[in-house]
Specification:
Layout (H helix, E strand, L loop, with lengths): L1 E4 L6 H10 L4 E4 L5 H6 L4 E4 L25 E4 L1 H9 L3 E17 L12 E14 L5 E5 L7 E4 L4 E4 L11 H12 L8 H16 L3 E5 L4 H14 L3 E7 L7 H12 L3 E6 L1 H8 L5 H20 L5 E5 L4 H6 L20 H4 L3 E3 L7 H10 L4 H4 L19 H20 L8 E15 L2 E14 L7 E2 L4 H14 L3 E6 L13
Helix pairs in contact: 5-6, 5-12, 6-12, 8-9, 14-15
This protein binds xanthosine-5'-monophosphate (XMP).
Xanthosine-5'-monophosphate binds next to loops.
C-alpha cells in the first residue's frame, strides 16, 4: 500500500487514481496524521503531495519530519518535494518567475524514477517556489530552463523529489515515472483489483455486521446498487433495501428501476410511493437550498417510517464514495463553504441510532463501476449517468408543479433517447434538460406562441469535481432541439448550456 500525504493540492485525487490504475492500493491521509498511525499501516512507499502553501510561511502544512527516517521510500511532488528539502536542511525560495505550464525536462539520471525514459521529455510545472540548495545526500536528476532542480534524489535514504507534476496527463511520461516509483523503488505488487477488493469487502462486512440486520436506501444508481450487491453476498436475507419514489424521477424511471432491480438483484426490496408527500412539501418553494432541505427531510421521515417496520435492524448501509471521505479529512479541512446541500441520508443513522456500513468508502466512481461489473451487475445498472437525489425538483428552476414535471419528463426522455442513439450516453458524465421559469415568443405554423424555454446540459467529467460542457456535434443538437420543440407541448425554445465547472456547477440549482 502507498500512503499519500495530502498537502492540499487540487491534484491529490489524481495521484491516488494513477496509483490505483497501476493496480496498487493507496490511501490519502491528512499531514497531521501521527507517525504511529503511519507505521501501523505498513506502507511500502509514501507520496507527499503538492499544495498551495509555501514552506517558509508560518501556517503552511507540515507532517512529522521523522517520516523521512522510517526507511520507507518517499516521493515528494512540488510542495511535497519542497517540504522534504526544507525539513532536511536545504533551501527553498520564491522563484524569480512563477512557472506554469509545459517545460522541457532534461534528465541527467537514468536509474530510479527515470528508468526506460528518454533523456528529454515534456513535463507540467505549476509552482511559485523553487529549490535553491539541496540537503546533504541529494543530487540533481533533472533540470528545465527555468528550474535548475526539477528533480532530485537521496539514493541512500530512497528519497525522491519532483518539482513537476507526474500525475497530470500534460506530463506524458508521468505514469511511467510513478510506476517506476511504485514497482521498482517501493517494490509494490500489482494486486489491487476489484475481484480482490470484493472478496475482502464481503469478509469485512460479515465481521462487522455479525448476525445483525441491515437496511439500505436503494436509488437504482450504481453506488447503491453495488452496495446492495456486496451486502447481499455477505449477509443474504439479512439485508433489506428501501426504494423511495419521491415523484421527482424521470419518465417511467420508477417502473424501469423496479423492473431492473427485481430482475438482477434477488434481494428484499420494499418500494414506497411517497410522491404526494414530496410534492406537497414543495408547493410554492422556489429557493434551491430550501427545496433540497425539504426533500432531504421528507426522505428521512419516509425512510425512517418504513425502516421501523423491519424488526431488529442494527445497521444502515450507504454507498459513500472516497471523494466524500477525502474532502472531510483534507489538509485545510476547515468548514468549507456549502455550495449545495447534497441530498443523502447523512445523519440518518444517528437519528435512528444505527451503525453505518459503507463498503465503498475507499473507492472512486470508476472503480465502483468496475466492481459492479466484476460482481455481475448488468450494464444498465453499472453504466447509468449520475442522477441527483432531489431529482427533477432541482432541474425545474422556480416552483415545482405537476405541469412543469410533465414538460420536463417528456423533454428529458427525448434528449436521453437521442443521446443514446448517437452513442453518447456512456461517453458523457451527464446529459439532462432543465426547465426555465421563462417564456419566449415563437411561431408555429402561422400562430404566435408564447411558451417555455428549456436548457440542455451535457458535460464531461471524471468525478464531478470539475466538468466541461460537451462539444456535441451540431447535427445531434439540431435533432434534439427539433424533436423537443415539435413533440413537447409547452416548449418553443431550446438553449444549450456552455458553462464549465468551476465556475458554474453541473446542476443548475
Ligand atoms: P454539482 O451541481 O454540485 O453536482 O456540480 C455535482 C454532481 O453531484 C450530483 N448532485 C447530487 N447528487 N444528491 C446527489 O446524490 C444531490 O443532492 C446532488 N446534487 C447534485 C450532480 O448531478 C453531479 O453529478
Amino acid at each position: 500500500m502507498i500512503l499519500i500525504i495530502d498537502f492540499g493540492s487540487q491534484y491529490n485525487q489524481l495521484i491516488a487514481r494513477r496509483v490505483r490504475e497501476s493496480k496498487v492500493f493507496c490511501r490519502i491521509l491528512p499531514p497531521q496524521t501521527d507517525l504511529e498511525t503511519i507505521k501501523s499501516l505498513e506502507p511500502e512507499g509514501i507520496i507527499l503531495s503538492g499544495g498551495p502553501g509555501s514552506v517558509y510561511e508560518e501556517d503552511s502544512p507540515t507532517t512529522d519530519p521523522e517520516i523521512f527516517n522510517l526507511g520507507i521510500p518517499a516521493l515528494g511532488i512540488c510542495y511535497g518535494f519542497q517540504f522534504m528539502v526544507h525539513t532536511l536542511g536545504g533551501k527553498v525560495k520564491k522563484a524569480q518567475k512563477r512557472e506554469y505550464g509545459y517545460a522541457s525536462l532534461n534528465i541527467t539520471d537514468h536509474g530510479g524514477l527515470y528508468q526506460n525514459i528518454d533523456k528529454i521529455n515534456e513535463c507540467w510545472m505549476s509552482h511559485g517556489d523553487s529549490i535553491e540548495r539541496l540537503p546533504k545526500g541529494f543530487e540533481i536528476t533533472a533540470f528545465t530552463e527555468n528550474t535548475p532542480v526539477a528533480s532530485a534524489v537521496d539514493r541512500e535514504k530512497k528519497l525522491y523529489g519532483l518539482q513537476f507534476h507526474p500525475e497530470v496527463h500534460h506530463t506524458p511520461k508521468g505514469k511511467e515515472i510513478l510506476r517506476n516509483f511504485l514497482y521498482d523503488i517501493c517494490q509494490c505488487e500489482r494486486n489491487w483489483t476489484m475481484k480482490a477488493f470484493a472478496k475482502e469487502a464481503v469478509e469485512q462486512i460479515r465481521e462487522n455486521v455479525q448476525e445483525g440486520r441491515v437496511i439500505l436506501g436503494l436509488s437504482g444508481g450504481v453506488d447503491s446498487s453495488v452496495t446492495a450487491l456486496l451486502l447481499h453476498k455477505a449477509i443474504g436475507d439479512r439485508l433489506t433495501c428501501i426504494f423511495v419514489d419521491n415523484g421527482l424521477l424521470r419518465q417511467d424511471e420508477a417502473k424501469k428501476i423496479k423492473k431492473v432491480l427485481k430482475k438482477h438483484l434477488e434481494i428484499n426490496i420494499r418500494f414506497v410511493n411517497a410522491s404526494k408527500l414530496f410534492l406537497k412539501g414543495l408547493v410554492n418553494v422556489t429557493d434551491p437550498e430550501k427545496k433540497r432541505k425539504i426533500i432531504g427531510k421528507v426522505f428521512m421521515d419516509v425512510f425512517e417510517a418504513e425502516a421501523k417496520k423491519i424488526e431488529g435492524v442494527k445497521f444502515l448501509a450507504q454507498g459513500t464514495l472516497y471523494p466524500d471521505v477525502i474532502e472531510s479529512v483534507s489538509a485545510f479541512g476547515g468548514p468549507s463553504v456549502v455550495i449545495k446541500s447534497h441530498h443523502n441520508v447523512g445523519g440518518l443513522h444517528k437519528k435512528m441510532k444505527l451503525k453505518l456500513v459503507e463498503p465503498l468508502r475507499l473507492l472512486f466512481k470508476d472503480e465502483v463501476r468496475r466492481l459492479g461489473k466484476t460482481l455481475g451487475l448488468p450494464e444498465e445498472l453499472t453504466w447509468r449517468q449520475p442522477f441527483p437525489g432531489p431529482g427533477l425538483a432541482i432541474r425545474i428552476i422556480g416552483k415545482v408543479t405537476p405541469q412543469g414535471l410533465s414538460i420536463l419528463r417528456k423533454t428529458d426522455a427525448i434528449l436521453l433517447e437521442e443521446i443514446r442513439n448517437a452513442g453518447y450516453y456512456k461517453k458523457l458524465w451527464q446529459s439532462f434538460a432543465v426547465l426555465l421559469p421563462l417564456k419566449s415568443v415563437g411561431i408555429m405554423g402561422d400562430q404566435r406562441t408564447y411558451e417555455n424555454i428549456v436548457a440542455v446540459r451535457a458535460v464531461n467529467s471524471i468525478d464531478a469535481m470539475t466538468a466541461d460542457w460537451a462539444r456535441l456535434p451540431h447535427p445531434l443538437l439540431a435533432k434534439i432541439s427539433n424533436r423537443i420543440i415539435n413533440e413537447v407541448k409547452g416548449v418553443n425554445r431550446v438553449v444549450y448550456d456552455i458553462s464549465s465547472k468551476p465556475p458554474s456547477t453541473i446542476e443548475w440549482e
